[in-house]
Design goal:
- This protein is α+β, with helices and mostly antiparallel strands.
- The chain folds into 2 domains: 219 residues, Antithrombin, subunit I, domain 2 (Antithrombin, Chain I, domain 2, 2-Layer Sandwich); 93 residues, Alpha-1-antitrypsin, domain 1 (Roll), CATH 2.30.39.10.
- The protein has 9 helices and 13 strands.
- The chain has a 6-stranded mixed beta sheet. Strands 4, 5, 6, 7 and 8 form a 5-stranded antiparallel beta sheet that branches. A two-stranded antiparallel sheet has the order 12-13.
- A hairpin with a 7-residue loop joins strand 4 and strand 5.
- The longest helix has 19 residues.
- The protein is globular.
- The chain starts with 21 loop residues before the first helix and ends in a 6-residue tail after the last strand.
Length: 388
């Protein structure tokens, strides 16, 4: 039997209900891919919330519709909450939890000072000048190095070469890193292969961990739930909620989450006490280009030539790409996870008016209907178009 640490935290309280949560709506799009996947709604929402600060008019309304009216307030509160308490000697490691934000702006582009002030002060996102116009690939590599450094090298090559170019004017980046120990660690000696039913495929044996300790459990809408707390020591109260299909398919459970969000599942996880838990070890990493998914849930205007980000710069820009990577490893000791999101703003090409060549058929004429090889199918002469 594994023993919980003496001051293992009580089960987390469910957050207050949120209408149409962004994380759930986005999950409804991302879950369309097959197999394992992982994403960080928090990272994506923070990066988009910073971008939203520069949106105006219908573009702002579209982003608020997707992110939620309180998106910026929630993002700022989340950033403020990411504080790692001082490590006490001879105690398990407290959660390491960090958020880093930065703007990488083209050095030849003038950005609105009010926008730079709010992103710096409220999002802790200073602006760094880079040369997108003349050295965009060097700028891309520099941004990727910054992301790798912030995520302990867990997220590498966030931005691919095609994602930036000489027309890129700003890249807004968020990076999140977490490392947390279980309140009750799993005993490594108990880990052994056990049967695991794979959705849509045959069962197989996978390395499965075992522990007895403090947890919360329940059931909701065809799923069994278990919430495993991480060791806190006065730091953030974190937990991993696992939803196991029981009466419904995995796809049905995903659809319920996409429609309802996490709150009903957390609320239903209302039994607290000693639990015997079996959980597979796993490591997962995924990358996404989110333009299509965000457009599907209502943010398409921000990606179009009609986008209005004049609060960011008077130079006409639009979101050209939102790239995201996430990684997590779950083992007997706890969880290590990282994610990063980059919102790439490109200058919107202004259509140059072209004076059309004027052709007036204003006198008697010949006409020929022909094929691609010049064969005349019909030929004629019109002397008076009004004659019959």
């Amino acid at each position: 039997m594994t023993t919980a640490y003496a001051d293992a935290p009580a089960a987390r309280k469910a957050p207050p209900p949120q209408p149409a949560p962004f994380a759930a709506r986005l999950d409804g799009q991302l879950a369309k891919r097959d197999g394992n996947f992982l994403y960080s709604p928090a990272s994506i929402q923070i990066a988009l919330a910073m971008t939203r600060e520069g949106a105006r008019g219908a573009t702002l309304a579209a982003m608020d519709h997707v992110l939620g009216a309180d998106a910026t307030k929630a993002a700022k509160a989340l950033i403020a909450s990411f504080k790692t308490p001082k490590q006490e000697p001879n105690r398990p490691t407290v959660p390491e939890l960090s958020i880093a934000n930065r703007l990488f702006g083209d050095r030849a582009t003038k950005f609105e000072q009010a926008f730079l002030d709010i992103t710096s002060n409220d999002y802790r996102a200073p602006v760094e000048s880079v040369d997108f116009r003349n050295a965009y690939d060097a700028a891309r590599k520099h941004i990727n190095e910054w992301v790798a450094n912030q995520t302990h090298d867990k997220i590498k090559d966030l931005i691919a070469p095609p994602d930036v170019g000489s027309d890129t004017r700003m890249v807004l980046v968020n990076a999140i890193y977490m490392k947390a120990a279980w309140a009750t660690p799993f005993e490594p000696s108990l880990t052994k292969p056990a049967p695991f039913a794979i959705a849509g495929a045959a069962s197989k044996k996978v390395d499965t961990m075992h522990m007895q300790g403090a947890a919360s459990w329940g059931a909701h809408d065809g799923a069994r739930t278990v919430d495993l707390p991480y060791y806190s020591a006065g730091g953030p109260q974190l937990g991993m909620l696992v939803l196991v299909p029981d009466g419904k398919s995995l796809a049905d459970i995903e659809a319920s989450y996409a429609a309802e969000g996490l709150t009903p599942f957390l609320t239903a996880t209302s039994n607290h006490g000693l639990a015997a838990v079996s959980l597979p070890k796993f490591e997962v990493g995924t990358s996404f280009e989110l333009a299509d998914s965000l457009s599907q849930i209502g943010m398409g205007l921000a990606f179009s030539a009609k986008a209005d980000f004049t609060g960011m710069s008077k130079v006409a820009t639009h979101i050209s790409a939102v790239v995201h990577k996430a990684w997590a490893k779950v083992d007997e000791n706890g969880t290590e996870a990282a994610a990063a999101t980059a919102v790439i703003m490109n200058e919107t090409a202004v259509a140059v008016p072209v004076t059309p060549h004027e052709v007036r058929v204003d006198r008697s004429f010949l006409f020929f209907i022909h094929d691609a090889d010049g064969n005349v199918l019909f030929g004629g002469r019109i002397v008076d178009p009004s004659a019959k």
